[in-house]
Amino acid sequence: MSKVLGFGVIGCGNIGPFHMDAITQIKGAKLVAISDVVEPRVKELAKKYNVEGYLDYNKMLERKDIDVVNICTPSGLHIESALAAAKAGKHLIVEKPLEITLEKCDKIIKAANDNKVKLCVIFPSRFSFGVRKLKEAIEKDRFGKIVIGDAYIKWYRSQEYYDTGKWRGTWEMDGGGALMNQSIHTIDILQWMMGPVDEVTAYAGTLLRKIKVEDTAVALLKFKNNAFGVIEGTTAVYPGFDNRLEIYGEKGSVVLVGTNVEAWEFIDKIEEDEQIKAAKKKTSSGASDPVKSITSEGHMIQIQDMVDAINNNKTPMVDGYEGRKAVELVLAIYKSAKEKKQIRLPL
């Protein structure tokens, strides 16, 4: 019989409560404690979820009834609590991105391996219906030779959004802007579908917002399978639109808007195709608001996968190595834009 796993959440800002909601809905999981440096926030959420609240996560990590720790702090602070949690023998669920440099990503992965704990990175879009069906089609070679893979993320974040969080829009804490924070979900899906990138040529700039990082970036990609691709990411366009993922091949093409299928056409048709095209669902892309349009459903599916991985000693579907890939691609784009030259991967 599977053990009920105790969970602790570090970071009670915007995304933390989505983790808390998800945990409370998962069979075999129990929210035990939460931690944040902002005392009123901790008290409010501890009362809401009827759990213990801590201002010092190291004290929380001493609890024997916590098996898994969810890291929901600002991106550039993930490493501190992740290393402490791994050392304490806790399994790790880390919000995207895993960290903001490859060196920090690798330290977290090594800490998880050294302490024999499991590590997963939150990319809930991978678990949506449209994305899963697209991945199946690629694995079954329904596209034949894939020619083009594109990701378009044209979102809107006001100046107020950046001004209300000191860590937002900074290299030190956010690790970047439109790409590293918002677009990374779709970038992750693109590289998961298309495989490794060989070369990147990019432009990135701060065209509208008063922030230190980019609010707009474009990149040309050459994948190792010789296909080409484009990434366009921005948080500067009003009112913000659902992200688009487009995969085109010699035998078929698929376009996802949000996580819904907008186009699904193959030369060699199968019975399920019409069902896939008809399966429309209201999705939450975060195009115009980082919180109001999001639900905890995607987090719930991925945290459930982690629970199953722990109980059955399997690797989580999005482990540390998988979570690192999107970070590397974003950093390659930044490097190309900064150095004004083509960049080859791996970095």
How would you characterize this protein structure?
- This protein has eleven helices and 14 strands.
- The protein is of the alpha/beta class and 347 residues long.
- The strands form two sheets. An eight-stranded mixed beta sheet has the order 13-12-11-7-10-9-8-14. Strands 3-2-1-4-5-6 form a six-stranded parallel beta sheet, sandwiched between helices.
- β1, α1 and β2 form a beta-alpha-beta unit.
- The chain is globular and about 55 Å long.
- It starts with a strand and ends with a strand.
- The model has no long low-confidence stretch (mean pLDDT 96).
First and last CA, distance: 44 Å
Query: How does the helix and strand content classify structurally?
Result: alpha/beta
Instruction: Summarize the amount of helix as a percent range.
Output: 25-40%
The biggest beta sheet, please? 8 strands, mixed
Q: Beta fraction of the residues?
A: 15-25%
The geometry reads as: globular
Strand order of the largest sheet: 13-12-11-7-10-9-8-14
Q: What descriptors fit this protein?
A:
347 residues; alpha/beta; 8-stranded mixed beta sheet; 6-stranded parallel beta sheet; 11 helices; 35% helix
Provide a compact summary of the structure.
With 347 residues, the protein is of the alpha/beta class.
What's the topology here?
Elements: E1 5-10, H1 16-24, E2 29-35, H2 39-49, E3 52-54, H3 57-60, E4 68-71, H4 78-87, E5 91-95, H5 102-114, E6 119-122, H6 129-139, E7 146-154, H7 159-163, H8 178-194, E8 197-205, E9 216-223, E10 228-234, E11 244-249, E12 252-257, E13 260-266, H9 272-278, H10 297-311, H11 320-339, E14 343-344
Parallel strand pairs: 1-2, 1-4, 2-3, 4-5, 5-6, 7-10
Antiparallel strand pairs: 7-11, 8-9, 8-14, 9-10, 11-12, 12-13
